[in-house]
Amino acid sequence: MTYRFGALGSKLLAIAAIALMCSARLGQAAELPDFTGIVEEQSPAVVKIIVEASTARDGSDINEQEIPEFLRRYFQMPNPPQGPQGPQERMATGSGFIISDDGYVVTNHHVVEGADLVTVRMSDRREYEAEVVGLDPRSDLALLRIEAEELPYLVLGADDALKVGEWVLAIGSPFGLDYSVTAGIVSAKGRSLPTRSRENYVPFIQTDVAINPGNSGGPLFNLKGEVVGVNSQIFTTRAGGSIGLSFAIPVNVVRNVVNQLKDGGTVTRGWLGVTIQNVDRNLGESFGLDRPRGALISQIASDGPAAKSGLEPGDIIIEFDGEAIETSADLPHVVGLIAPGTEVDVLIVRDRKQKTIEVEVGGLDAEDSVDQAYRNGEAEDEQGGRLGIVVEEAPEEMLSRWDLAGGVVVRSVEPDSPADDAGLMPGDVITAVGATPVRSLDTFSEIIGDLADNASVPLRLIRRGSPMFIGLRLGD
Predict the structure, then answer these.
(1) So which residues are the signal peptide here (predicted)?
(2) Is the domain of 385 the same as that of 370?
């Protein structure tokens, strides 16, 4: 059956189609979150942090030079005095938020580090001089206190409730522009961003929320208006703007650190006393894993918690206190949140078999450095034909310097050999093949000679003073 429409009918059909399209778009718009309620209710507890410090200070979040030139005229910053000058004071700004009605304020460590004077300014323009209760550079958190009562405050959300793809928003003072609001989604969780001291205790939340200098220390909210993180870092262009890669400290870390700073002004973390590395495909095969996973122990601190519990170099930690360890970066995140003195079960892979070991977690104080915690004649050449390397006995001076019981030094590596494919380099000191220690050149030759064709084995070695494992596969 065929229907014919006149001009009027065609117009009616067109109008109906447009109405359907508009209705669909309105339906989509209705599904988008409305942030106005959160902003109205929560912004009174968000504060601006104003820091005065000497010019030598390097922890500020924003200063005049970081403000784009086209914005500087809005900040009424005077021209600097000319001529010789003595020590000068500089001002910097960041963000923060109140967590209790009696005046506790959370912000970033790098915002107030080295400050001579910290002022907290509220949204109604009230200002208070703040006391620095405690600092924790490892998490980049700081706890302040102001003398005031019945203040508005924010509620910390539940641990581990945040999901990737969830809507979040930030309130802060980017470039000094007070109480700016930006929104986006959670892009990822558990991001590892090692600090300058090679520490990695924070499983950062990654978002695409627009965060800029001045937002640091401000809250990241979920749609319930709860704080789920503290904005801390951004990846940026040379111009200093946001490129959609921002990172926040998750609320479980914030809660742990704040509680400790409140109680004693310092933070103590769980410590295992191991040096670890990732497990790649070759290492996974050589250790008998079904897939690459876990944290491979390459070194153990003498008299540390791991050594006392019976953990050994070459063990792969795949579960710690019930938490799966997928990569080496996961382990510090889990261990750091465990109270020192706690006994936990650790699931490892050793000699291609799974084994559970009970470990009493140690403590790492705020002032302890990780490096300190981990330190308490003519060579005969040998051709490693099966591996494609030339090795020689490690000299006594080298063994003594690195506290080794034995080993062989790689002097050359043949191109396209198993050793070359595995990534061995001249200067590497091989200290173990599989679970067998290399005590001398003779023992190394015997171990290599006994390996089966196509075998996949882990080599433990020292490279530029650092222990590590690599996976090596032999040819036919």
Answers:
(1) 1-29
(2) no
Residue 176's pLDDT band, with cuts at 50, 70 and 90, is: confident
Query: What's 10's DSSP letter?
Result: H
Any idea how long the chain is?
476
Backbone angles phi, psi at 303, to 5 degrees: 65, 15
Supply 85's token pair. Answer: 């000058």
In angstroms, the CA 12 to CA 185 distance is 41
What are the tens digits of pLDDT across the range 147-168? 998 999 999 999 889 999 999 9
Do 310 and 385 lie in one domain? The reply is no
In a domain, 456, yes or no: yes
Distance between CA atoms of 152 and 40, rounded to whole angstroms? 12
Residue whose tokens read 């000679």: 449
Phi (first) and psi of residue 43, to 5 degrees: -60, -30
Single-letter residue type at 256: N
Token pair 């109140």: residue: 98
pLDDT of residue 60: 42
Name the H helices within 265-338: 281-286, 305-309, 330-336
> Considering the domain boundaries, does residue 332 fall inside one?
yes
Name the residues annotated as catalytic: 110, 140, 216
- Is 150 among the domain residues? yes
Q: Are 252 and 73 within 8 A, CB to CB?
A: no
Q: How far is CA 301 from CA 272, 310, 346, in A?
A: 9, 12, 17
- How far apart, in whole angstroms, are the C-alpha atoms of residue 43 and residue 55? 32
Mean pLDDT of the chain: 82
- Residue whose C-alpha is closest to residue 149's, from 104, 119, 213: 104
Least confident stretch, 26-30, 72-76, 255-259, 428-432:
72-76
Residues 44 and 57 in one domain: yes
257-269 residues labelled b (16+ CB within 10 A) or e (exposed): bbebbeeeeebbb
- Alpha helices for 287-329 (secondary structure H): 305-309
Q: Is the pLDDT of residue 196 over 70?
A: no
Do 291 and 389 share a domain, yes or no? Answer: no
- Shared domain check, 170 and 97: yes
If one counts the domains in the chain, the total is 3
- The number of C-alpha atoms within 13 Å of 441 and in the hemisphere containing its C-beta is 15
Range of the domain at 366: 269-374
Instruction: Judge if 155 and 218 occupy the same domain.
Output: yes
Instruction: Say which residues have a Cβ less than 8 Å from residue 29's Cβ, sequence separation at least 6.
Output: none
d(CA 215, CA 231): 7
Same domain, 231 and 304: no
Total-model pTM? 0.69
* 3-state DSSP helix/strand/coil % of the chain, to nearest 5: 20, 35, 40
